[in-house]
Amino acid sequence: MKQITQLGATVEEAISIALQQLNTTRNEVEVEVLQEAKKGFFGFGARQAEVRITVKEVESENTDQDKSDDVHHSITEKISVVQEDIQEQSSLSDTIEDPSVFVEEQEDPIESARKYIEDIARDMGIEDLTIVTQKQGKNILFKLESEKAALLIGKRGATLNALQQLAQLVVNKTAKSFLMVKLDVEDYRERRQKALEVLAERMADKAIHTQKKVAFEPMPSYERKVIHNALANRVDIETYSEGTEPNRYLVIEPIR
């Protein structure tokens, strides 16, 4: 049984941080509020909210995380295949005078990506996936829903990020102009952003308290950007990235 206790400025913040650490969703855990937050009087008597989060037991012998690791590896391989396919198409277009005469009527790129995601989900053993697409200008949002949301998200969002990269490639493989693709599952992106913002402040305070650099674990560029933005107005620290992708990480350094 997987269980942790977590503090937070509010009960909801504590729950959000715990869900991120457990890499799961609200409907897959049991929440016990150990204490409510208290503001105190002039700073005296203040206390944080504390919750105990317990992951519900799953009967399957293979955990969703084990499956997620296998799926993430499979998706990474698919990304390489699509990239090679795009490069081959580009090379072919460069060798013919009028490539448009060889192009047959193609399926809508957004619909192609939606079907691609559904096919991968079936390979993952997910049969109840529903996808809602929203398009605003050059931005495409695929909202995924399933009882196996944690499997779609993967460890710290790794599977979801890989699926998003794959969908981005599939969409822009045939799109007439570049489109920016985003995948989300049960508002994971918003919850992840809030958790990162809370973590950013705590790590910045740690850097100031210890007067030493604090380094995060490797994360995608857009997550590093969340932390950069969250700390942009602080004048006592500076943030920068080090390393090379996919192991690039963010560093907080106190300003002496």
Automatic annotation (TrEMBL):
Protein's GO biological process:
cell wall organization; peptidoglycan biosynthetic process; regulation of cell shape
Which PROSITE patterns does the protein's record reference? Answer: R3H
Keyword Signal recorded = no
Q: Domain R3H spans what residues?
A: 190-256
Q: Which cellular component, as a GO term, is one annotated location?
A: cytoplasm
Question: Hey, what's the signal peptide range on this chain?
Answer: none
Q: What Gene3D superfamilies does the record point to? A: 3.30.300.20, probable RNA-binding protein from clostridium symbiosum atcc 14940, R3H-like domain
State its location(s): Cytoplasm
Predominant localisation class = cytoplasm
A single Gene Ontology MF term assigned here is: RNA binding
Q: Which domain of life is it from?
A: Bacteria
Keywords for this protein: Cell shape, Cell wall biogenesis/degradation, Chaperone, Cytoplasm, RNA-binding
- Report if keyword RNA-binding is assigned: yes
Role summary: A probable RNA chaperone. Forms a complex with KhpA which binds to cellular RNA and controls its expression. Plays a role in peptidoglycan (PG) homeostasis and cell length regulation.
Q: How does it assemble?
A: Forms a complex with KhpA.
Q: What is known of its domains?
A: Has an N-terminal Jag-N domain and 2 RNA-binding domains (KH and R3H).
Similarity comment: family membership:
Belongs to the KhpB RNA-binding protein family.
State what protein this is by name.
RNA-binding protein KhpB
From what organism does this protein derive? Ureibacillus sinduriensis BLB-1 = JCM 15800
